[in-house]
Amino acid sequence: MISDLLKYTSMLVVLVLLQVLLLNNIQFSGYVNPYMYVLFILLLPFETPRYLLLLLGFLIGLLVDIFSNTPGMHASAATFMAFVRPYTISLISSRDSIEVSIPPRLKTMGFGWFLRYTIILVLAHHLFLFFIEIFSMSGFLHTLTRSLLSTVFTVILIVISQFLIFKE
Predict the structure, then answer these.
(1) pLDDT at position 168, please?
(2) How many CB atoms lie within 10 A of CB 92?
(3) How far apart are CA 55 and CA 35, in angstroms?
(4) Cβ proximity of 34 and 16 under 8 Å
(5) Residue 41's pLDDT is what?
(6) In this structure, are residues 114 and 166 in contact, taking their beta carbons and an 8 Å threshold?
(7) Reduced to 3 states, what is the DSSP secondary structure of residue 136?
(8) Long-range contact list for 66-69, CB < 8 A, 24+ apart?
(9) Which residues of 22-60 are buried (b: 16+ CB within 10 A; e: fewer)?
(10) How far apart (Å, rounded) are the C-alpha atoms in residues 104 and 101?
(11) Mean pLDDT of all residues in the chain?
(12) CA gap 149, 125 in Å, rounded
């Protein structure tokens, strides 16, 4: 229990630092912005209670907001992602195929399942974030393109991280 708490706390700190010190400075012609901090929400255990999931989503989003000077945008997008996570899990898995004791990782759940899970949740996060950022429908196609390209780049980084770092 204590080791899990330390593991997830250190993951939160590392992902927030990676996001604010490195990834916030990466931007390809205004279209691609990688947001790796969402990996924290993706990798939380299946048995995480919904209230704690929402609270942790809000917390990591708030930390990114504080360091990025984006008042509430990441907090609301990460909370939204944490809100839709249980529905996404039930949408892409049958009730019998999920073992609560195993973590939602690429190695434990399989490549196809993890890729669907990641794409759906990262796309939901990015659409919410970019439409909140622009807060208008005037640039709909630009915002949609930006969301899709950023989702592709973020998913690629997440899958690479699963192969390199999370070898459970």
Answers:
(1) 52
(2) 17
(3) 19
(4) no
(5) 97
(6) no
(7) coil
(8) 67/16, 67/20, 68/19, 68/20, 68/24
(9) ebbeeeeeeebbbbbbbbbbbbbebebeeeebbebbbbb
(10) 10
(11) 89
(12) 13
What residue spans define the domains of the chain?
Answer: 2-164
Consecutive H or E run containing 168: none
pLDDT in tens, 39-97: 999 999 999 999 999 999 999 999 999 999 988 999 999 999 999 999 999 999 876 56
Q: Which DSSP string do the residues of 33-96 spell out, in sequence order?
A: ---GGGHHHHTS-TT--HHHHHHHHHHHHHHHHHHHT-TTHHHHHHHHHHHHHHHHHHHHS-TT
CA–CA separation, 51 and 25 (whole Å): 32
Nearest to 106 by CA among 30, 40, 163: 163
Q: The tokens 């917390």 sit on which residue?
A: 59
What is the predicted pLDDT for the residue at 102? 78
CATH number 1.10.1760 is the correct assignment for the domain at 2-164 = yes
